[in-house]
Amino acid sequence: MTMSNTGGRRRPPTIHDVAREAGVSRGTVSRVLNGGHYVSPTAQEAVNAAIRKTGYVVNRHARSLITGRSDSIGFLLTEPQERFFEDPNFNVLLRGCTQALAAHDIPLLLMLAGTDDERRRITRYITAGHVDGVLLVSSHSADPVAKELHEAGVPLVQCGKPMGPGTKVSYVAADDRDGARDMVRHLLTLGRRRIGVVTGPLDSPGGVDRLAGYKEVLAESGIEIDERLIASGDYSRASGEAGAEKLLAQAPDMDAVFVASDLMAQGVLAALERAGRRVPHDIAVGGFDDSAAALAARPQLTTVRQPYDRISAEMVRVLLAQIGGEDPAAVILPTELVKREST
Questions:
Q1: Most buried residue among 170, 186, 215, 284 by CB atoms closer than 10 A?
Q2: pLDDT score of 65
Q3: Burial (Cβ within 10 Å: 0-12, 13-18, ≥19) of residue 227
């Protein structure tokens, strides 16, 4: 802190104090604060050292008036609020994105929009310039928010592949199809042949790709696709429970089930226990995500690990690059089979 001329009261350090301490111009300090473009490594280190020594803190409001930026990012979840609290994946993504942005001293604003009215209000808020870009998490292709924000010129990165032709939105996704293939191959190696599936929403890329991977491996193995072994879910625990009940009624000889999310797999386990089916002795169960739900399940779930830390970091990296003027980008990350007690 710097002494003022009024009664010895300390005043906050200014950009001029930083420039004087670093021995550079005010313009050089400003360029460092706005990304370090056209600044030599020596000058940048001098400015950063001066910032630490003086205790200078950026006045975000003043800078936003100059740059036209808010210096904040939105994390937009277009799902009902109860899903945010039920599904542990959303919290993992939120925490990862928050940590990745903290390295850039950028705050993250959580926005929940589970209804049409909420989506309209939040879309108006975003397009008014209150955030510099959006990290979008949505399960359904019918969600219009991505298209509206993209058309409004808002920098945007979606978690998961967009659906539909000609989509130019940046996205980061796990390889859902390959992860599903790994799981079904694993179940086949255990000698299981009547393998059911509880899918994710089939208007979502994850739901479509995980079902496609299931069907591909069965076909490669010469096993005919039996529609009685397919039930749809929406990634909720309740839909997993309902899906398992449907499969047991339609295909009582089922000896394994691939479930498209760990949370749904918890519901499947509950339904199997009620029906007196032992896991994995009678029916092997495989999940997807490797979320906290997989470890909380009894027995603990064999599952497909999505690399959420990398997904979060890549979403932030791609969004900041887009805000900086780069073109949209797509990133697909590999999954990993994790074997536990349920298979």
A1: 170
A2: 43
A3: exposed
Instruction: Please tell me the distance from the alpha carbon of residue 20 to that of residue 15, in angstroms, as a whole number.
Output: 9
The SS3 assignment for 229 reads: helix
Q: What is the DSSP string of 241-304?
A: HHHHHHHHHH-TT--EEEESSHHHHHHHHHHHHHTT--TTTT-EEE-SB--HHHHHSSSPPBEE
Rounded CA-CA distance 79/231 in Å is: 22
pLDDT of residue 296: 95
Token pair 């990165």 is at which residue?
157
* Degrees, nearest 5: CA angle 189-191-194: 115
The pLDDT value given to residue 164: 64
**Who contacts 195 (Cβ-Cβ below 8 Å, separation ≥6)?**
184, 187, 188, 214, 218, 223, 229, 254, 255, 256, 257, 258
> Following CA atoms 305, 308, 314, 320 in sequence, which dihedral angle do they give, to the nearest 10 degrees?
160
User: What's the whole-model pTM score?
Assistant: 0.77
Return the bridge partners of 171, or none. 158, 330
* Secondary structure class of 168 (helix, strand, coil): coil
Beta-carbon neighbour count of residue 129 at 10 Å?
Answer: 12
Low-confidence ranges of the chain (pLDDT < 70): 1-10, 34-37, 58-70, 139-143, 164-167
CB 278 within 8 A of CB 218: no
DSSP state of 228: G
In this structure, the number of other CB atoms found within 10 A of the CB of residue 177 comes to 20
In DSSP terms, which residues pair with 230 in a beta bridge? 197
Q: What is the pLDDT of residue 37?
A: 66
Determine what percent of the chain falls in helix, strand and coil, rounding each to the nearest 5: 45, 15, 35
Residue with tokens 């089979």: 337
